[in-house]
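pipeline/complex-builder :: batch 7 item 3
reading input block
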Amino acid sequence: MCRFLLYKSNSPILLADLLTRPAHSIIMQSFNCKLRIDMRRPMNGDGFGIGWYDEPRTKGCIFTSTLPAWSNLNLQRLAEKIKSALVFAHVRATTGETATSESNCHPWQFGNLMWMHNGNIAGFDSIKRRLQNSLREDIYLSIQGTTDSENAFALFLNMLEDPLNRAEFSHNELKQAMLQTIAQLNEWLDEAGVKEMSVMNFAVTDGQTVVCTRYITSSENEGASLFYSSGSEFKSDADSGQYRMIKANKREDVVVVASEPLTYERSDWMVIPTNTLLVITPKLNVHLYPILDKYWNPNRGRHVL
Amino acid sequence: MCRFLLYKSNSPILLADLLTRPAHSIIMQSFNCKLRIDMRRPMNGDGFGIGWYDEPRTKGCIFTSTLPAWSNLNLQRLAEKIKSALVFAHVRATTGETATSESNCHPWQFGNLMWMHNGNIAGFDSIKRRLQNSLREDIYLSIQGTTDSENAFALFLNMLEDPLNRAEFSHNELKQAMLQTIAQLNEWLDEAGVKEMSVMNFAVTDGQTVVCTRYITSSENEGASLFYSSGSEFKSDADSGQYRMIKANKREDVVVVASEPLTYERSDWMVIPTNTLLVITPKLNVHLYPILDKYWNPNRGRHVL
Amino acid sequence: MCRFLLYKSNSPILLADLLTRPAHSIIMQSFNCKLRIDMRRPMNGDGFGIGWYDEPRTKGCIFTSTLPAWSNLNLQRLAEKIKSALVFAHVRATTGETATSESNCHPWQFGNLMWMHNGNIAGFDSIKRRLQNSLREDIYLSIQGTTDSENAFALFLNMLEDPLNRAEFSHNELKQAMLQTIAQLNEWLDEAGVKEMSVMNFAVTDGQTVVCTRYITSSENEGASLFYSSGSEFKSDADSGQYRMIKANKREDVVVVASEPLTYERSDWMVIPTNTLLVITPKLNVHLYPILDKYWNPNRGRHVL
Amino acid sequence: MCRFLLYKSNSPILLADLLTRPAHSIIMQSFNCKLRIDMRRPMNGDGFGIGWYDEPRTKGCIFTSTLPAWSNLNLQRLAEKIKSALVFAHVRATTGETATSESNCHPWQFGNLMWMHNGNIAGFDSIKRRLQNSLREDIYLSIQGTTDSENAFALFLNMLEDPLNRAEFSHNELKQAMLQTIAQLNEWLDEAGVKEMSVMNFAVTDGQTVVCTRYITSSENEGASLFYSSGSEFKSDADSGQYRMIKANKREDVVVVASEPLTYERSDWMVIPTNTLLVITPKLNVHLYPILDKYWNPNRGRHVL
């Protein structure tokens, strides 16, 4: 089980303030984490990746490494220099099925789109060939690694028109493609007779809109944890040195979605309910939509796992 | 363009005597090489791999790295300790289409079989899906990387019965599977309308028999260079310190096949003619067979490229 | 805080049976460990190293990597092939002061000697120059990295006559050099006014004798944990599949020393008391000696931390 | 022998336009280079580093890797995003004495200062201890690797007052410290009786002024090649796609110093004479000073090696 973080704001943040300096940053979480549902691998040392955009309507940049994030000098130095208003970050723990290689590090890019995944598609091998055969040629040939996550991205791309060359997408288009991707995976998994639960916390952006999900193929169990927070600024408190989400006014200038809260102030963080899709619009409005398929269960426990 | 080496003998050689100590070893060749046909990448610094067997009828071992071979301390230290009577070695230069990752380093293994490739399959993208769709499920799912070379291995495996679990194969079986692999690739490349030449210097072993090819999809051009040498021992000369193939008696106790001669004594090395398949039997007999397809041309220049 | 393991036996063990297959192997421990005294870095993902000897009176071999041990394919493949009767293994967590680089991975070699360290020398910077100035030139120039651990090895070497060229050392010689090393470090640390505790779990071998310590510069606190176990064979139980130390007869054919027990059978493991030096002779006799300096305290709690 | 490049301009350049896109960029040079004086290692695949400043009077950023520059995906992606008006770049070939590790990759930083070296200090081992003993404590402890180059930087830092905390330095101060560094190295090398030639092409900057040298400890031989070019813009020609130094007006807005010309237009490039110190002022004035020590020889051949 991996974990991810995404950040979107009206003005750029120094990556260090998001990734390396906070005591409870995603990198520190990769040492010690309590909110997991898969205990096979007790932490996340099998590579990481960060992606960010510097200007709207352009391709983002990605930095990935198979070395652990916490001892990566290049990451630490770059994070002190790079500023961005839209950041994806991912730390990875292999589940044993796929190799640790840079080709298997999240996020992935295709045109202006960027994708990452926390979770795993159970029984993926039983649908891999079918998935790959459904893809348009350019998308099929773009696959560089062997993970379920990258293949799910390919399937998502296949739901869009001309994903390689378009600068931006409407948020409805991205939302629909995400729902179709999950529906298609479910259909194939059902037909293959896969009974194990799949965890599909996906996140995608075109550099302007962000769509992400907290999803599990179960109507009973909670999915892998996912939280969000919004406010006017994410920064360290002058007194305590602790990072906080500042809520100085009614405006929302920052939205963060993360597998675990990034600050010790739990009241800053709202749980995204299991089997929910979240949209962050270019203007930073946040919308949550229940995913109303056969796994939808309004009575599922709302408590944090 | 990459280069490879394979060594088979009656008694184990220290890997250092084959790989790291000779002045003209495959690793030193990776710095500076004159016998190429692809000048896009003037040397081989994009990873390497060595494979070896310690006992007959067992799975071999592989050591791969994306760091250059010449500065790899682990390789240098291991080579001073490991002895083997059957060694594959490969240094890689990407041709730009595929990433430098350990998943893309030769050789690959499947059961007791080991495979490497020097060359490239032109227009591979245009036949990739068809190739993968022809594969049995376990072979399809075993593919870890994105190279034409690993996919060609998968196609070869698909020509064999139960390649994962059998301890050994007759040399005729391996030879036929190799010829079928080349024929199948050619058929698909033709149907896809690929006109560029493909270079298919393949090598495969089950730990006992070795089959390799020097092959190009052209009846005019020479293929990528390939040489072989045999004798009673491959060792350094007491006087000069130079490595030599010793021919102390009529017996052949050592056979080496390599993209370039490993010693400065050119008379030690015989050119393997273009479009030839070579078999080394478990008892170290060497047989050369012309590959009699439409690219066979007995009048092709016999000179070394 | 790191952890280490050393294994010595009368007959070679497959490295996989020691390092990668046991459910509670040193590599699995590197995920999740409970017996630490330094909680700054909750696990060990900053590189690892293994060292082993194949023949007595020869230089050992080392394999190190800055990638985490648990996802290192080369380690997994080599461990299935290499057998040795004397193995050192180390997983590393940087304490922030020194870089993650192969030069900083344990164990280190000098001639036939091999060295590793679990712990840290507090205030090492304040004695580094003095230590280096005390070294003979060849030893000073052999230092490749920046760790306190490697510098402590250099100091140890400096206590020996001709450590580079001698094939073996008496166990008394190694023991005395170890005690002198600790005494010298203590003297300099005192003179530099360092008050923080240093943890000096050192292990050294010449390929035949092993000397190691559980030591802390405190008369109150327990040192970093260290255990040993001996028996006739270390292997997996046919029924449970769990690794066990078999005690089939009175003979001791295997001795293992480790930062944490390698098996779930706690009765197999004896605690090495804090501030004790342990010697394993070439014939596998084990001797424990209290280190009778100013930190010696016979009434220190004997309980496991 | 390595090679380096430094770039300083009035307005930022995209790193890709300097490092990865030009057909004769430093990275492509690392494949194939003709202007060397040390043929032991025929190319540069033992790591690389780039350093750049984004704002004046701040610490620069560094990205280093032990993977070859030409196959480094992170470098290629970052170069498409990062812009800077002051860039250092270095590709490294080990000379066998020191390990390939990130600690040994150029450039190094200390406060706002950045340093790189093309060449080697012959017999460095014989002066290493003396050099390290001459250093102030903070500088001595900052050394992370084992190279002559990093130690020479330490010696240079030792010539300056408070190099860690000052934002900037006068160009005279940097020039004098460079000359003192070379003089001190020469004095110690002489006293140690070293007869082999040392090559000291050093470059240093505080983010505003650049000082570099082409220097050899010989009055007969030419030093390692070094060239410079200046103009109004370094960019690709619209017609040919070739990179050129544009000289649109009399103003000098760009200065490049490089081990080899970066463009095919040799008339763009001036040879820096052997044993010369070059200063680029914050306002982009370029001054050349002969280094008038015992190795100065006005009649040394001015031809390019």
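note: Chain B is about 20% helix and 30% strand.
queue -> next item
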